[in-house]
UniProtKB/TrEMBL annotation, chain B:
Keywords: Signal. This is ABC transporter oligopeptide-binding protein. Pfam families: SBP_bac_5. The keyword Hydrolase does not apply. Belongs to the bacterial solute-binding protein 5 family. Residues 78-439 form the Solute-binding protein family domain. Transmembrane segments: none annotated. It comes from the Bacteria. Its main location: periplasm.
Amino acid sequence: MMALAQSIGSSRGVAIALAVVRWAVRFVAVVLVIATFNFVLVHAAPGDPAQVMAGQSGSADEQMLAQLRADYGLDKPYPVQLAIYLKRIVTLDLGYSYRQQRTVLSLIAERLPATLLLTCSAFLLSLAVGVSLGTLAGVRAGKWSDTALTVVSLFLYAMPVFWLGLMLVLLFSVQLDWLPAFGYVTIGVQMTPFERVRDIAAHLVLPVVSLGAVHLAIYARLMRSAVIDVAHQDFIKTARAKGLKRGQIIIHHMLRNAVLPVVTVAGMQAGTLVGGAVVIETVFAWPGLGRLTFDAVLQRDYPLMLGIFLVMSVIVISLNLITDAIYRIVDPRVSLRAAA
Amino acid sequence: MNRREFAKLGLMAGALGIGGIPLGITRAAGQTRGGTLNTIIQPEPPILVTALNQQQPTLTLGGKIYESLLRYDFDLKPLPGLAQSWEVSPDKLTYTFKLFPNITFHDGTPLTSEDVVFSITKILMENHARARNTFSRIDKAEAPDPLTVVFTLKKPFAPFLTAFDCTTAPIVPKHIYDGTDYRKNPANAKAIGSGPFKLKEWVRGSHVHLVKHEGYYRPGEPVLDEIIYRVIPDSASRSVALEQGTVQLTQWTDVELFEVPRLSKLPHLTMTTKGYEFFAPHTWLEINNRIAPMNDKRFRQAVMYAIDRKALLNRIYFGLGKVATGPVSSKTKFYEKDVKKYDFSPEKAKALLDEMGLKPGPDGKRVTIPFLVPPYGETHQRTAEFLRQSLARVGIDLQLQGIDVAGWAEKFSNWDFSMTTTTVYQFGDPALGVSRSYVSSNIRKGILFSNTCGYSNPEVDRLFEEAATATSDDKRQEHYSALQKIMVDEVPVIWLLEIDYPNLMDKRLKNVVTSAIGVHDTFGTVSFG
């Protein structure tokens, strides 16, 4: 009996180890394919960074263009540029942005925290509020409060995010003067760490609410229909027949089963957390990665663009893994094999 | 010191558990010395060293950090900059500048004539296309003593004294740059110049913080303690920032032109369009003269007649500028107003097109021409739509093509276009900012702001060259007048407008625009009240 138990245990360990190895190999392969794909795409567009820089300086001559191209390594043939690029990636060197005169890694590292703070706050806000409102609407399906919630969530869903942002600024910053209109932190003022945290939090409110609003509506609607679905199933009737309280039924029986579609969508949404906030970052002058990406694309800053795309793809792949893991926790029927 | 304005957070913040945060909107109120100026930089410059990068925002911000030998009044007459006096030899070949004593760089090192010679003959010659054009005419640059610089030209070049503003000829420290790879020098991040303000902090994506250079050589300057340039990428947010008082000054296209009428009426703001005389932005409809039917002078004249440029000015540019009459801006010297006039007249346009044999087809269209819409904001987009409507009335069908910055620059500079609009600066003298767009020697494929339209007239070439090297202003005027008359008849491009960009500013601000380079100047005397 002991031997059998051990062999079951170790075979399970082997399975996990195998899954991890399989996942790691797949991860590296996917990253390299993405890197190659990015490189080809980026270089397929007409116009190069030298031209853009020359265009913005109001005057240019051959010497300047030649020098810019040499600086960027744009004077070499594409396959050579690609080979150099892939070789660098393997050594975790993301290159140097001549435009910004900094290493790509340092530029990304500088902007990533601001973006994560913004998008993760918005993600958590929309998830928490969306799931609660959706549940509420679902259990009160057909009543006036359900209709009200549905209308509000449709309204939020249909609203362009930049417009919502601007309206919030007009109301809370310009008219009421309660919250800062944009920026990450008040500039040029000495603050204690505690004051600084509160200051950043105040700056965070409007962009997070604007960004969270759309997703909140999606989660609320998903949750509502899932709750209605689950409510009619037999095990809920059984639970009710057992005499469980309404609150217990909702929390222990309904939510766990109804939340799966939300996890699926949230997992996909999580993939956009890193780069998905370009509009909000622009409206609120938030110094994040989305804007860095946008500027890099406009300016054809090749090393920076490629670096950001790569970092984003790594994060997205990792988030997918995390989503799978959460799936397994919420619904044990999902197997390790499938997750791997 | 700055006064912090405290505003209470209300319901909303309270609900999130962060009620009662003091929101500092730093404002310097009612003071004559010190204070913080908050303004906008857009887009964010890649680097602040103006000797190495000449993009618009770099020059605006870098003007506070780097100075040059001269400044220019609104009539473009030279004023002392780093040089307190200057002399030109009678043969117009030797220029002698005397520097102010006691000038120091931000690292404490004295600025001497050696730094000037190094900047002009080395770092700028290698990295600054516009400066290279002028300073390649220097035969010898000498520094006989620490406060004297002598330039000897190969042959006279009339606008030489117009090329020493801080955007064309910034002076950088030789001890930091000499013998290094300029573009990769780690000191670039510190941006060490000799201007009244020095770099304290640059948080990418957020702001650039400049503070007073304590050892500045001009007594009493700078008046302000700090300048904060905020990066605000969205134009609506920039307007809000100005309206709200978070920033006290805007420049160039920080505010969309359609917002200007509204914002300039706000009680706390004032507006000026002065301070762009040196740049004198000239907007035109660029026409590829190589392609039929645009290679026919009559076609280009017809386009000139077909566009109601006054309506364009009033409707799209909200009256911020004036109708251009030819290649030279009326804001600069050597402008000639007695040239052929093109009043708005669709009839004359149609007559010219008929004369060419371009008859309208059954759908009323004579010809279809692709038009590249420059990706530089709302105003260019609206201008393109306006032009499309105008030309449709005389049977010229424009097909608008949207494109991004890099694509536009590539197609435009490689002559792969029929029509587009462009805005070009005059840089204070026709020899610096005008001739480059029209002389045959500057027809260079792949180079933006060269003679992209492909215009070539040996007589005009000769007049431009003689005007640049003539030693008397009268002689120059004669040549420039003659060539303007020829060119306005031949219309190599459709001159549309001389644009007046607005500077919106807080009413308490004084001395913001004091020279022909306006907001690019040092801001040494700028003050609140």
